[in-house]
């Protein structure tokens, strides 16, 4: 039987494909229908930027706020010191406290584009679990919280079970992570009246444990909701490009490259991605996703513009589109392309074209650059490159040159000084 939600939030996220599992969907829907709900998602601070796989969770928080509820973005300043074993084959590298704090500052800048922070009834408070985890007394924590968890149950968690089944080490510090995440939920319930934790499907065990802890300790109802693992039409995990993660922060990935990633998604992904990563009406998302032939390319431009506007701002989205039009439609250079700047000292008597292709970030190695040239996939100012040994000197760089890998990836090389 199909469930018909009463609340705007549950109806919205259900229609847009955000729900994988929920502890009690009907009761949670009823709470959203009759009161302002506070819910949270936790983000570990393992890098200076989140990637587009995390954008699913950020959009979930944004929809929560847009429908009149109160989202909490929990920065994992404390849990990052431990490391979440979920979905990992080996123990994460332990980061310094300074690095974790710097990552928090960097990540928060992107959140501010999606979510309103402040003290209003639906504003998101700025919360970092280091506030309480750093002050925990270990013995007290074991007595008050640890007694509610059995080893049998922890061993049944998929994140633990999968590591042990593959005979890969699971450190004691990681084993504690699940208790700490459950304790986060309890603290947020006590401090902010939070009754909902959301996250990716790999967090289901951790989320259910937190809701159960609140029921045991506070005799109160608490809920959990997870989103599905978002994969592309080719079956690959969302958030990756040929060169690695697709980062949300401008300093980790230029707006042009970010925009271009969305512009180049598979035709079959357009409708799904419009629903999950933009705020366009459902009917419009479905109409655009059903287009075929050359018309689907116009839908991809809309997708790229909408997502980039949300994440980076409208001005950067317009600049990225203008650069793409200049590069692809007019055969020009475009001011917003990724740019390699070389000093005369670096260039010296000249640099091989293969080195430049690597240095510009179009490929990862000289071997890859040579193969690209051999397969006629490399271009210099739109002319096919055939000589992998070609040297580029100062005279060649009197004006910026454009290097291309295939039809969709480009970079500029400029001489400075």
Structural summary, described in words:
The chain has helices spanning 8-15, 25-34, 55-66, 97-114, 130-133, 138-144, 151-156, 158-165, 172-175, 177-192, 204-218, 255-263, 270-277, 282-289, 295-312, 314-329, 344-347, 353-359, 366-374, and strands at 21-22, 38-44, 70-76, 126-128, 196-200, 223-227, 240-241, 244-245, 339-343, 351-352, 378-380, 383-384, 391-392, 401-405, 409-416. Helices cover 45% and strands 14% of the residues. The chain folds into 3 domains: 8-227, HUPs (Rossmann fold, 3-Layer(aba) Sandwich), CATH 3.40.50; 254-329, Tyrosyl-Transfer RNA Synthetase; 339-416, RNA-binding S4 domain (Structural Genomics Hypothetical 15.5 Kd Protein In mrcA-pckA Intergenic Region, Chain A, Roll). The strands form 4 sheets. The protein has a 6-stranded mixed beta sheet with strand order 1-6-5-2-3-4, sandwiched between helices. Strands 9-15-14-11-12 form a 5-stranded mixed beta sheet. Strands 7-8 form a two-stranded antiparallel sheet. The N and C termini lie far apart (69 Å). By secondary structure, it is of the alpha/beta class. Helix 12 (255-263) crosses helix 16, helix 13 (270-277) runs antiparallel to helix 14 and helix 15 runs antiparallel to helix 16.
Q: Which CATH-level-2 architecture of the largest domain? A: 3-Layer(aba) Sandwich
Helix content: 40-55%
The CATH class of the largest domain turns out to be Alpha Beta
What ranges have pLDDT less than 50 throughout 5 or more consecutive residues? Answer: none
- Number of E-type strands: 15
Distance from first to last alpha carbon: 69 Å
**Helical stretch tally:** 19
In spatial order, strands of the major sheet run 1-6-5-2-3-4
CATH topology of the largest domain: Rossmann fold
Number of individual domains: 3
Structural class computed from helices and strand pairing: alpha/beta
Radius of gyration: 24 Å
Largest sheet: 6 strands, mixed
Q: Tell me the β content.
A: 5-15%
């Amino acid at each position: 039987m199909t469930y018909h939600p009463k609340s705007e939030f549950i109806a919205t996220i259900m229609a847009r494909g955000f729900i994988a599992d929920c502890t009690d969907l009907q009761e949670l829907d009823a709470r959203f229908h009759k009161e302002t709900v506070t819910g949270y998602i936790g983000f570990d601070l393992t890098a200076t930027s989140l990637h587009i796989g995390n954008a699913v969770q950020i959009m979930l928080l944004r929809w929560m706020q847009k429908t009149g509820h109160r989202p909490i973005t929990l920065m994992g300043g404390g849990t990052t010191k431990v490391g979440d074993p979920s979905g990992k084959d080996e123990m994460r590298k332990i980061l310094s406290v300074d690095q974790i704090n710097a990552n928090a500052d960097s990540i928060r800048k992107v959140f501010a584009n999606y979510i309103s922070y402040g003290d209003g009834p639906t504003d998101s408070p700025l919360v970092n679990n280091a506030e309480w985890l750093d002050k925990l007394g270990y013995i007290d924590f074991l007595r008050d919280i640890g007694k509610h968890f059995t080893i049998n149950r922890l061993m049944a968690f998929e994140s633990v079970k999968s590591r042990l089944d593959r005979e890969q080490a699971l450190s004691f510090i990681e084993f504690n992570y699940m208790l700490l995440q459950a304790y986060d939920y309890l603290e947020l319930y006590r401090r902010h009246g939070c009754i909902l934790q959301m996250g990716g499907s790999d967090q289901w065990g951790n989320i259910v444990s937190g809701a159960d802890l609140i029921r045991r300790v506070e005799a109160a109802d608490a809920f959990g909701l997870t989103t599905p693992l978002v994969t592309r039409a080719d079956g690959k995990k969302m958030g990756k490009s040929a060169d690695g993660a697709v980062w949300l922060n401008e300093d980790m990935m230029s707006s042009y490259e970010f925009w271009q990633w969305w512009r180049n998604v598979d035709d079959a992904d357009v409708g799904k991605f419009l629903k999950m990563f933009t705020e366009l009406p459902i009917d419009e998302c479905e109409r655009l996703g059903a287009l075929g032939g050359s018309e689907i390319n116009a839908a991809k431009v809309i997708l790229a513009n909408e997502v980039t506007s949300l994440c980076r701002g409208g001005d950067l989205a317009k600049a990225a589109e203008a650069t793409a039009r200049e590069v692809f439609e007019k055969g020009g250079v475009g001011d917003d392309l990724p740019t390699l700047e070389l000093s005369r000292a670096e260039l010296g008597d000249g640099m091989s074209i293969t080195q430049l292709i690597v240095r510009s970030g179009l490929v990862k190695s000289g071997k890859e650059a040579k193969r690209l040239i051999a397969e006629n996939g490399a271009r210099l100012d739109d002319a096919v490159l055939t000589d992998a040994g070609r040297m580029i000197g100062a005279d060649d760089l009197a004006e910026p040159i454009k290097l291309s890998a295939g039809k969709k990836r480009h970079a500029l090389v400029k001489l400075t000084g």
